Amino acid sequence: MGCSGCSNGKTDGGLPRGCNNNGACQTGSCDKLSVFNYLSNMEDTVGYTSSEFVEVRFKNTRKQFFKQENLRLSEGDVVAVEASPGHDIGTVSLSGDLVLLQMRKRKVDSATSEFKKIYRKASEADIDTWQEAVALEEETKKRARIIARELALNMKISDVEYQGDKSKATFFYTAEDRVDFRDLIRRYAEEFKVRVEMKQIGARQEAARLGGIGPCGRELCCSTWLTDFRTVSTSAARYQQLSLNPQKLAGQCGKLKCCLNYELDSYLDALKEFPNPKTKLETEAGTAFPQKIDIFKGVMWFTQKADPTKFIEVPVERVNEIIKLNKEGKKPAVLVENAYVEPVAKKHDYENVVGQDDLTRFDRPKGSNNRKPGKKKRNNRNRNRNTGNKPNNAQ
């Protein structure tokens, strides 16, 4: 991650070299929800001119489609676009046929939808004003939180985004209940001298805007590629035999992790071969009660009343066979005719592969032969002196 300028070490202040935007540069590699245009070198295949529609990226994950006229734009161009009111500044993140595919994915009809205009490529004055607005956002967010706390409002200001011409500021907030922020808007307008817009977002959208590193060690999915936030329930964890520990199942947003849905379909397909986990098996030795299952190994564990502490591992094929016999009124003698043995992984011997000595030769404990010469004789002489016995060679 990062452009070539950001990757060349850091400054004395801790910021990356190059653009110094700390992950918000416009080179494409640091952008959130960045898309690689694999159709950029191909001819038009959809039926539109390749320069008719473009995708413009703003702060964080906010993107919007625009229809350009008499402009030849490419990825990375800074443009001035129509806003309400005034104009906004954004960066072209995608152009060509792939824009139409993205519009189709997001169900945006290119024929009937209304698109805002792209005024022009941003001038030097536009970019200067835009950078001044971006520099105000962090201080504005801190002051906005203080004002909300003074008014005793149960809400959290998570992010602030200024419009490119500094005429409007959008305050993104999260709240569990309805918030009456009429006095808050009046205070914000007096304090920051801009038009104020309040926008409520969910916990997942807040995590997407702020970003971060997940427990897997990678950047959050919601801030890099995930745009479709689906409902995640605890049943997804149950199907995958996961412990219902809220601290492990919750992400940085405080909700259940979105990745619980990624492999859920594969688990559901594998569970079709398993019977009901509450199914009991009848044998001549007694009733076997199910305890747990292992989807990957394809086995189930049962216990019997005679020895409830002993877990018997039974393959799912054998379980289905016993269930079929029980329905016919038959009881097998035992749960498993041949005890299930887990396959032993083959161990590779890497010792002496190049004719060297054993690598663990230094870990061996020292033997009794390593004593210093004469130590044993000295101990015997002291023992004889204490007991009053003379050595054998004494005259």
Number of domains: 4
What is the CA-atom radius of gyration, in angstroms?
A: 35 Å
**Unreliable residue stretches:** 1-10, 21-29
Distance between the termini: 90 Å
Rough outline: elongated
Please trace the helix and strand order, writing H or E for each element.
Answer: EEEEHEHEEHEHHHHHEEEEHH
Tell me the fraction of residues in β-strands, as a range. Answer: 15-25%
Strand order of the largest sheet: 2-1-4-3-5
SS element count, helices:
10
Helix content: 25-40%
Largest sheet: 5 strands, antiparallel
Backbone structural class: alpha+beta
- By DSSP, the count of extended strands is 12
Q: How would you characterize this protein structure?
A:
The protein has a 5-stranded antiparallel sheet. A 4-stranded antiparallel sheet has the order 9-10-11-12, covered by helices on one side. A 3-stranded mixed sheet has the order 6-7-8, sandwiched between helices. α2 (124-150) packs across α3. Helices cover 26% and strands 19% of the residues. Residues 1-10 and 21-29 have low confidence and may be disordered. The chain is α+β, with helices and mostly antiparallel strands and 395 residues long. The chain has helices spanning 97-105, 124-150, 182-192, 203-210, 221-224, 234-239, 246-249, 264-271, 316-327, 375-387, and strands spanning 53-57, 63-67, 78-82, 87-95, 118-121, 156-162, 168-174, 195-200, 281-283, 286-294, 299-304, 307-315. The protein folds into 4 domains: 21-121, no CATH class; 128-205, K homology (KH) domain (GMP Synthetase, Chain A, domain 3, 2-Layer Sandwich); 230-272, no CATH class; 273-341, no CATH class.
